[in-house]
Amino acid sequence: MYLIFLQGQAQSVTVADLRNEFVVLEALESQLLATQNFLKPQNILDMYAFLRNSKSFGLLTLYKANSSTNKP
Fold this sequence. Notes:
Layout: E1 2-6, E2 9-13, H1 15-35, H2 41-53, H3 59-69
Antiparallel strand pairs: 1-2
Helix pairs in contact: 1-2, 1-3
């Protein structure tokens, strides 16, 4: 169990939570590289924060959608 601090609030996370976050970051990186859309780091962080906080956007949905679009 780990503690992270978001907007002044402590929140405990598990290793599984961290792995899911890594999946999101990998999917964002793949999408940006695939579209050759190199954004400023702040824009990438904003997009990541939006996806992470969106209740209607599941992490696995993002991963599956990204995986299916990268197939040859």
